[in-house]
Every structure is written in structure tokens, then in C-alpha cells.
Amino acid sequence: MIVTLTANPSIDRTVRLAGSLQRGAVQRAESVISQAGGKGVNISRAAVTAGVPTTAVLPAPGVDPFVLELAAAGIPCDPVPAPGPLRVNLTISEPDGTTTKLNSPGPMATPEILDALALRLRHHAADAAWVVLAGSLPPGAPVGWYADLVAALADSPARVAVDTSDAPLGALVDALPAAQPHLMKPNGHELASFTGHDADELELDPRVAAAAAQTVGDAGVESVLATLGARGAVLVTRSGAWHATPPPTDVVSTVGAGDSSLFGYLLGDLRRQDPESRLALAVAYGSAAAGLPGTTIPIPSQVRPELVRVRELHPIQGM
Question: pTM of the predicted model, to two decimals?
Fold first, then answer.
């Protein structure tokens, strides 16, 4: 089972334009899609479509339309009562695949809500293969809260994956190796933010990205999956490093692509695949998501790992 925590869930609203975004102009939308989202929710949604047991832990009023939507989609959800309304994240999607995101901060999280979320997470972790801590933290949460959760889950049978950014990511890196997740999934800009590398260089050169990711591995993280947008992803583990190139994709929306990539990797792990196959499945899921509108999560029949090219990166400096 995969248990996900979405500490700051959102209603993901995607506005698709017929042409390029023009600042200061009035433009007509081609379509508007709204969906209950957030990184952890997206991963649980992917798990349901793939037939993998999952539970989504999140703060929300129990009868909120957000929770009811997840229930209607067959996504098991364990909401911690919290005041609403939930935040709305707006994505503006242009025909060439360019996306502009406007994310709101979300409602305030009290210590009581955070404690309740941690308690629910530990409860579900007892029966889980993976616990995923994903997304931003809500206002009121300490920046080191994910690091605290990783440390608190150290004695559970579940493995822990973290996908976050900004100050919570920095706090997690600073807490290594005391708070040591089994998997981290930064993108190129996030990896650059705590390794001192140039983000553009990381996304252009997989070997540089792998060397940067290895610094996290040297601090104790078993696996680092660094997504590089159109250039695929690199995977660094204790046994080696690999780069995967996605198949040609007509990009519609990149929203949710990173979440899909993370799920693909976890699915490969649950299937006991080797690192190369896990990376191929991750990139296949991510590229399939990029070809779908809004935050649509791909179903297994849309995922083509056999079209992903994987090559070993050897040697990597510092390995």
C-alpha cells in the first residue's frame, strides 16, 4: 500500500488558452478544468488507476466537496478535520505546453491539526510499503515538519519518500542524516537550490544532475530521482546512476507530471523491478501526464515504458 500525505491540498483549476498568454489583455479560455489535487492526492489517484491500494491523508472538512470528489473517484481518504476553505491553485496552459502557475497559500494549520495528521500517518504506515510526504506546507507549519515526520517514521515498516520544495526541502536536507528518507524526488531547480549548482546546467547535462544528486546520497538518502523536464530524469542509488530519456511527447500540461513520475517509480519498486526499469516507468508516467490536459493523471494503458531510453552514467564523481 502507498500512503500519501498532502499537508496543503488544493483545488487544481486549469485554464487552457487558445493562444499565448498576453499580460494585461482580456482573453477567452478554451476550457477550464477543476480537480481535487495536491501532490499526495495525485499520487493516490495514480495508485487507484493502477490497482495499487492507497490511502490519502490530508486536512479538510469531512463533508467538503473536495473529500466527496475523492470518494466519488474511489480514492480512499482519511481527512483530518480542519477549517476551510481549501486553497485554489490556478494553472494557465498555452498551446505550446507552457504553463503558468498561481498557487495560493492555503488555510492556517494549527498544532492540533499537524499533530492529528502525524498520528494518522503513523497509524497507516504500519500497513504500508511506502509513505509519501508531498507538496508544500500550509501556513503555520514549521519548515522542519517534514524532517520531523521522517524521523518519527524511522521505526515504522514503511519506506518514506519526500517530494517538496523551498524552505521545507532545505530543512530536510539540513536535517540529514538524522532525518533520512529512503527516496527524494527533486526537480532540476529544487536540486540546484540545495547543491549550489546552476539549475539550467543540471537540466541540460544529466551527468551534472547525477553528480549533484549523489551529494544527497552521500548524506544517507538511498535513492534520488531527479526529474529534468523534457530531458527525462536521472536516478542515483547506492548501486549506480542512470539517465532516462522520454519518448517524443506533445506537451499539453506539465502539471502533475512530477507526481506521476514519482508514482511510476514507486510502482516499479512495488513490482520489485531493477533500478533501470523503475526509472523507465517513472519517466514513462511523467511523459504520459505531460501529454494530458490539466492535472489529469495517466492510466496504465497510456504509459509506455518500452519507449523510454535508459543509459547508465558511469562513473559519477563522488560515487
Answer: 0.91
